[in-house]
Specification:
Length: 281
């Protein structure tokens, strides 16, 4: 199997020209930045996620006009396996191929495990964890049939590598995504399909903005204190990671340069998982 996933694209500014990409949870935050960067690189895009229908349509047409690629929207609920399968099948119907899958959709809920609502556990593990399996299974069937390889990137988290209080479902799900990434990479390697994870630290998106008041309540502190003392405490680089930083890592992982990178993760977490910052003694 050739590692030259993009060999047929002569346009160096559009290395993904002729490729089709699905980005789950791309109506907001990190997923939206990833979809935009892949479209700029020439890939046709399936957007997915929730939100205001008029706003989603406005963003879809704007992205298509700006980049010249085909952009479709699919409203699959990532907690529903049948809808995930249908989304992948419709992407294949629309573009005649599926080359790139970015499993990005995710939700969070912050609460101590002894009070953690069962329905929140089920929702978080379905969207953040099981959906990664269902989409990978469906997309890899088409990628194998095409015999031109494929790229699967799972947006895990620094919380796939280490834990913090009050996030049991999210942390279990993200650790599961990293394990699944390794296992799927082995199963699909002979077909030229790579499977990798990206592990962001804190990125200031609606998912994180929502947590600031929730955590302020749980810890009994002000919102500024939550940012400084909880969120950025473990970042050695005392800043949020940017959505473009994550998108650029995904662009690398779907590039030819990453043809031999599989079954691993890239942490973009300001040094969080490297160790304890400022612990000099
Ligand atoms: P966000 O809330 O801005 O976006 C989440 C996206 O997922 C939205 O498009 C939303 O509509 C979609 N979504 C939610 N439930 C869905 C469902 N059932 N079906 C389909 N789509 C659904 O969040 P974000 O911060 O951009 O998060 C994106 C990913 O990055 C998530 O997997 C998250 O866990 C991960 N992540 C985020 C951070 C961070 O600090 N923001 C850090 C590490 C990992």
């Amino acid at each position: 199997m050739s590692g030259f996933f993009f060999a047929h694209s002569a346009d160096h500014n559009k290395p993904l020209k002729g490729k089709a990409a699905i980005v789950t949870g791309s109506t907001s935050g990190i997923g939206r930045a990833i979809a935009e960067m892949l479209a700029e690189a020439g890939a046709d895009i399936v957007l997915n996620g929730f939100g205001d229908a008029a706003e989603i349509e406005k963003n879809r047409t704007a992205l298509a006009e700006k980049t010249g690629v085909r952009v479709f929207y699919n409203d699959a609920d990532m907690s529903k396996p049948a809808e995930i399968r249908e989304m992948v099948e419709k992407a294949h119907e629309a573009f005649g191929r599926v080359d790139i899958l970015v499993n990005n959709a995710g939700v969070q809920y912050v609460c101590s495990v002894d009070k953690f609502p069962e329905e929140k556990w089920d929702q978080i593990t379905a969207i953040n964890y099981s959906a990664v399996f269902h989409a990978t299974k469906a997309a890899s069937v088409f990628m194998k049939q095409q015999k031109t390889g494929g790229r699967i990137v799972n947006i895990a988290s620094a919380h796939g590598l280490t834990a913090s209080p009050y996030k049991s479902a999210y942390i279990a799900a993200k650790h599961g995504v990293i394990g699944f990434t390794k296992a799927a990479a082995l199963d699909l390697a002979e077909s030229g399909i790579t499977v990798n994870a990206v592990c962001p630290g804190y990125v200031l998106t609606p998912l994180v903005e929502r947590q600031i008041p929730e955590q302020a309540k749980e810890y009994g502190m002000s919102e500024d204190e939550v940012v400084e003392k909880i969120m950025l405490k473990n970042h050695a680089i005392k800043d949020f990671v940017g959505i473009e930083d994550i998108a650029a890592a995904v662009l690398y992982l779907v590039s030819d340069a990453a043809a031999k990178v599989t079954g691993t993760h890239m942490a973009l977490d300001g040094g969080w998982t490297a160790g304890t910052p400022a612990n000099k003694f």
